[in-house]
Specification:
Strand order of the largest sheet: 1-2-3-4-5-6-7-8
Structural class: alpha+beta
Number of strands: 8
Order of helices and strands: HEEEEEEEE
Radius of gyration: 18 Å
Distance between the termini: 43 Å
Shape: globular
Strand content: over 45%
Number of helices: 1
């Protein structure tokens, strides 16, 4: 009986990692000014409340039904992603980019 209990306990403890996943998005962002367009890759880990955009780390402040909002440590760059249509806005000090994201999966 103890062995069965231990097997069940360990399977429950280690199964949480199997369900934790990161969503990866590929986004094409545009700016109304003369700055070049940006193509960025975004990784979202909702369990850890961390968002990575092209290697930069952002803390997720809001996980809502409609949107996910994050900002960097200094608070001078903000990211907002619509969870339904994938529209992302990236606001820096003097620029604002916006565009659509799609889920990205490995091909092989």
């Amino acid at each position: 009986m103890k062995k069965i209990f231990l097997v069940l306990l360990f399977s429950v403890l280690f199964s949480a990692n199997a369900y934790a996943k990161e969503d990866v998005l590929r986004c094409a962002l545009k700016n109304k000014l003369n700055e070049p367009d940006i193509r960025t890759e975004v990784e979202i880990d909702l369990d850890k409340k961390i968002l990575w955009a092209d290697g930069s780390k952002y803390k997720i402040n809001l996980i809502g039904e409609r949107a996910i909002k994050a900002e960097n440590e200094n608070g001078n760059i903000r990211i907002s992603i619509d969870r339904f249509d994938g529209f992302m806005t990236l606001e820096a000090l003097s620029s604002k980019f916006g565009g659509y994201c799609k889920k990205y999966k490995k091909i092989f």
